[in-house]
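Pasting two entries for a bug report.
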Amino acid sequence: MSERLYDEVRKTGQVEGTRMRTVLGHFASGVVVITASGPDGPLGFTCQSFSSLSLEPPLVSFCPARSSTTWPKIREVGQFCVNVLADGHAELSTAFARSGTDKYAGVRWTPAPSGAPILEGVAAWTDCSLEYEYPGGDHTIVAGRVHDLDSDASRAPLLFHRGVYRVAAPSPR
């Protein structure tokens, strides 16, 4: 820990949010869109905090902001699909991060087994049901039970690193 950061934490007992975002932005994360089939049509939002949680039972986790207006609607549905965005999806990520717009305008998708949208061209998708939910500061920690999943090894994943989108090369297979 840098001396400056240590002094900041020692004096205030807390790290400033903008500093935390800058420092932790050095960790590259994948970008996903969580989707569901709601009673009034498809739902979705962009999320960076996604990871595999457990193989037995098969669980994944993600953390929507507590300010999200879409997550409560998806929670009510109880089933969702995690779409791992790929090269060429930066605009899609931005569109699904906005509130109050038609996020699906011009977006092609097919239904997952649960009915949740699988967005066209994703690197991978995971069809889930809500298993657990916990408070996590200004976010909610969600664990979803995986029921089905698939991937396209030819698609390079979209990454977010130091405040910008980047693309990782697909692994040779």
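Entry 2 (this is the one that rendered wrong in the viewer):
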Amino acid sequence: MGRWIVTLALLVGCFVLTEWLPFSPYFRNMDTMIHEFGHAAATLLLSGEVQYIHLYEDHSGVTLSAVQSGWRLLPVSLSGYMTASLFAVLLFALHRHGQHRLGLAIVTVVALVCLVLFVRNDFGTQWLLGFIGINVVAFVVPIGFVRVAYYLLLAFLSLVESVVGAITITILAATTPSGAGDAANLANATGIPAIVWGVFFLLFAIWCAKRAIGHFLPRPKKPLFSKKRGVSPLS
């Protein structure tokens, strides 16, 4: 229970902090990019076709893709929110191991793939070009503190936005189910109400947030000696 309380408290604190930072809105589209990239990747893995991705200034996005009807619609619709949540875990896991350049390289490669293959609207193209440029500067900057600070900004924004996005889709599923995006698509494909899918996305996002924060917080120290049943601590 303690870990869950810490997770929720840090999420609220990170949300307030990232809202306060004047330049953070620019980087919030990274979560949208990862979300839409998840849809595109799932589509291609299932032998579908990606028509385009659009990224918008209000941090929303859309992926137009085509796959054969049936079970393939499920992983494609699930992949957006789940990929965004898992990506936040990946960024924090890399931070724990000090692999900040690797993390920046992964983010930049995803952005480059989106730019070349998928994104087809003006704002999305311009944002990707600027984002890739900033990442390259952060990658080569000789001041390690600056690179780590920038990396953590991206990681925490990814974490917060993945949870906020799941909360938003859950609220939409409860109030206007037909407009609940991926939850509505899953409801149409399965007959399971959109609110169920919204809650699933939310629980998954919170579980991933707990995993991500676990990578960020120091691990509790193990006792030097552990007492086992029937064995002396010093035996």
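Dev reply: Rendering is fixed now. As a check, the viewer should reflect this: The beta strands are 49-55, 61-66.
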